[in-house]
Amino acid sequence: MLKELAKFKGFSAKNLPKEEPFAPGHRACQGCGEVLALRLALKALGMNVIAVSATGCMEIISSPFPYTSWRVPWIHIAFENAAAVASGVEAALKVLKRKGRFPKNRRVDVVVFAGDGGTGDIGLQALSGALERGHDFVYICLDNEAYMNTGVQRSGCTPYGAMTTTSPPGKKSFGQMTWKKNVPAIAAAHGIPYVATATPAFFLDLMNKVKKAALVNGPAYVHVYAPCPTGWGSKGEDSIRLAKLAVETRIFPLYEVIEGKYYITRKITKPKPVEEYLKLQRRFRHLTEEHIREIQQRVDAEYERLLRLAECL
Amino acid sequence: MPKGKDTALMSWKEVPFGCYILESGNSVKFKTGDWRSFRPVLDKEKCIKCGQCYIMCPDMSYNQDEEGYYIVDLTYCKGCGICASVCPKGAITMVVEEV
Ligand SMILES: Cc1ncc(C[n+]2csc(CCOP(=O)(O)OP(=O)(O)O)c2C)c(N)n1
Ligand code: SF4
Ligand code: SF4
Ligand code: SF4
Ligand SMILES: [Mg+2]
């Protein structure tokens, strides 16, 4: 166990922080799971943060001029370089502390919020560089499985079979033809101290993981599953239900990778069939039984692989 | 036809240099409650004060009262129905918003 985490007792339903570093009046769609994940992450981090946002839904809905939903210092940056900018912020803080222009013992967490497109596709090399250089920061990917802000285009994180405007099903296509890119595994491959996956449905788990990510020295990466009713064709009220089902079907397993060792944080012994999850979303409505079987097989195999990683390493 | 200057937030001459917003969290002035077509209604008899509705609301609409109940503030509530769907006791019902 990392020594930075030894003292952390974890949040509980009874001692949730009251502060809301993210203000209401934001313009996320009704039932947006991504803004809920953002709210929970910031609640866990508290007010002593500098947030860096790549362009994407969360930037757009939080900052239409002349309003801002941010109650903490926030910098909006281009689509592809959030991790590079966070690196600069972290380096600047170090220098200011060294020069005595910022209190040495004041703890400030530098945190990135970026979408799946901004993380797994266009921002991947900036992310890789920042992880490899070892900056002390937290990178939170809010994964709604497509480029939602610009109108639902497929990304590398879009799941197999999903309908998006650039992976439309039709005579020659069944939707997204590739399997979801495993970005947490890419982050873990950098040998950074802390990687985790989380979902707003298990809010304490999410908040604890984000807090741990901030507490560790060096880079930390948290991949958060974020239901998007608008892009997925699901009901706003179902966002939490879907976030839970994604875990219960083993589609989105919850785990941590601490210093290279995998720990499954919620073991699913009796998984629900993937169909239960798929059928609540319009983006999967066109799938045939054959496709669903294929998805089930893939999910089973991936979970097996994860179990082996958690046991053998 | 209303003129631009009557409907615009401000004239371009008043836009601060760099489009800075100097007041943190001022989106609280933008009341998203008027997006709502359904409204959550609480039945206190059934409520066990667990706070699920409070923590799962994407629009930070719940506050706890002196008795410990979580009460919705409709100023920002968009009527998504998440609170009603996560309540373990079925204490919240979504009803059609009156106009
Ligand atoms: C270099 C560049 N290319 C394209 C865009 C347009 N653009 C802005 S946000 C966005 C999609 C964001 O997707 P994602 O990162 O998944 O975030 P989401 O909106 O889904 O939360 C795109 C394509 C841009 N701003 N900059
Ligand atoms: S498009 Fe999706 S992620 Fe973006 S604000 Fe709407 S629900 Fe949230
Ligand atoms: S979720 Fe239901 S039971 Fe829990 S506090 Fe809210 S209304 Fe009461
Ligand atoms: S309906 Fe949605 S926005 Fe309104 S209080 Fe419930 S969870 Fe919050
Ligand atoms: Mg996205």
Regarding quaternary structure, what we see is heterodimer
Content-based structural category of chain A:
alpha/beta
What share of the residues of chain B lie within helices? 10-25%
How much helix is in the residues of chain A? 25-40%
End-to-end distance of chain B: 27 Å
Here the CATH topology of chain A equals: Rossmann fold
How can the largest sheet of chain A be summarized? Answer: 8 strands, mixed
Largest interface: A-B, 37 and 35 residues
Kindly report how far apart the N and C termini of chain A lie: 14 Å
CATH architecture of chain A: 3-Layer(aba) Sandwich
Number of strands of chain B: 4
Fraction in beta strands of chain A? 5-15%
How do the strands of the widest beta sheet of chain A line up side by side? 2-1-3-4-6-5-7-8
Question: What's the SSE blueprint?
Answer:
The complex is a heterodimer of chains A (313) and B (99).
Chain A: H1 33-45, E1 49-54, H2 57-62, E2 74-77, H3 82-98, E3 109-115, H4 116-121, H5 124-133, E4 138-143, H6 183-188, E5 194-198, H7 203-215, E6 220-225, H8 229-232, H9 239-248, E7 255-258, E8 261-264, H10 274-278, H11 289-312
Parallel strand pairs in A: 1-2, 1-3, 3-4, 4-6, 5-6
Antiparallel strand pairs in A: 5-7, 7-8
Chain B: H1 4-7, E1 38-42, H2 52-56, E2 62-64, E3 70-72, H3 82-86, E4 92-96
Antiparallel strand pairs in B: 1-4, 2-3
The complex binds thiamine diphosphate, iron/sulfur cluster (3 copies) and magnesium ion (MG).
